[in-house]
Specification:
Elements: E1 3-6, E2 12-15, H1 17-44, H2 46-54, H3 63-74, E3 89-90, H4 96-112, H5 114-125, H6 131-137, H7 140-169, E4 180-181, H8 182-199, H9 202-211, H10 217-222, H11 224-238, H12 243-284
Parallel strand pairs: 3-4
Antiparallel strand pairs: 1-2
Helix pairs in contact: 1-4, 1-5, 4-8, 5-7, 7-8, 9-12, 11-12
Length: 285
């Protein structure tokens, strides 16, 4: 059965299922091509990617480490002076450094091309939206990209240094020495930054889930207490054992949850208004 889908600027044409697949395939190809191009750029700037970005958080001179240590000196506590003894990373495979270079370049390509990938998916789904839905979704790509990069930056500058300090200095016995593999280090950093970027998409997720009726502001408020507990548990796991560090990580996440409630309220008000207008027009006719 042919599906109605706007095609071009001349109005609506009927496109078959296979035509939809062909259209979707080209959007995917362009998105993948953008990721590959960004990955090649990242591969070429090896020194900046590794020395200035990836390996920096484990050194005492890293921005977050210096700021927290200064705050610790002001509060007369050494608990906030993290990563004061930088550790050396090891490689245990012949091709380990080359494969690590390639893997990091691909992850960097995904992060750098994220806005373009979102834009490609937006262009595919845009013709199927109504005019009022297009108005609300138009800024979704920009908002989602902004939140994603904000989350990545937050994860890199806040969660990564704290996690490196905790995991790198944790010992079960003095007889066991930590010799950390470069791939393990990068894997931890990558998972933290990408997860943080996705977590910061919570308001966008709340927008669409409320739009399709899966969640409501009342639901988010009801489970707020559980969300707070989970956030502080996660913050306690990845930070040094002091209340200041835990709070420093937890506050932005709590703020995101509250923003998600406000976003959900806004969507519900719009849905109620649209329903009331429809009922009035239906009675008038």
């Amino acid at each position: 059965m042919a599906l109605k889908w706007e095609k071009g600027k001349k109005g609506e044409n009927e496109m078959s299922f296979l035509e939809h697949l062909e259209e979707f395939r080209w959007h995917i190809i362009r998105a993948v091509l953008a990721i590959v191009i960004m990955a090649i750029v990242a591969f070429m700037f090896k020194t900046i990617i590794f020395d200035k970005i990836i390996l920096a958080p484990k050194n005492p001179g890293f921005f977050t480490n210096r700021i927290l240590c200064r705050i610790g000196e002001y509060l007369n506590t050494k608990a906030l002076c993290i990563n004061t003894k930088p550790f050396n990373l090891i490689n245990i495979q012949m091709s380990g450094q080359l494969t690590t270079h390639i893997a990091v370049s691909m992850v960097s390509g995904v992060i750098l091309a994220f806005p373009f990938v979102l834009w490609e998916f937006w262009k595919f789904f845009k013709p199927a939206l109504h005019s009022n839905e297009k108005q609300y979704a138009r800024g979704a790509v920009l908002a989602a990209s902004f939140l994603f990069f904000t989350g990545v930056i937050f994860g890199y500058y806040m969660i990564v240094p704290l996690s490196i300090h905790f995991l790198g200095s944790y010992v079960i016995s003095k007889d066991v020495t930590n010799q950390i593999n470069i791939r393990s280090y990068i894997g931890t950093m990558t998972s933290i930054t990408l997860a943080s970027g996705l977590i910061f998409e919570l308001p966008i997720i709340a927008f669409f889930l409320t739009k399709i009726g899966l969640i409501t502001p009342a639901f988010l408020k009801e489970y707020r207490r559980y969300a707070i507990v989970v956030i502080f548990i996660v913050a306690a796991i990845i930070t040094p054992p002091d209340v200041f560090s835990q709070t420093l990580v937890a506050i932005p996440l709590l703020g995101l949850y509250e923003v998600s409630i406000l976003v959900s309220k806004s969507v519900m008000r719009k849905k109620t208004k649209d329903h009331d207008d429809f009922m009035k027009n239906d009675k008038a006719s």
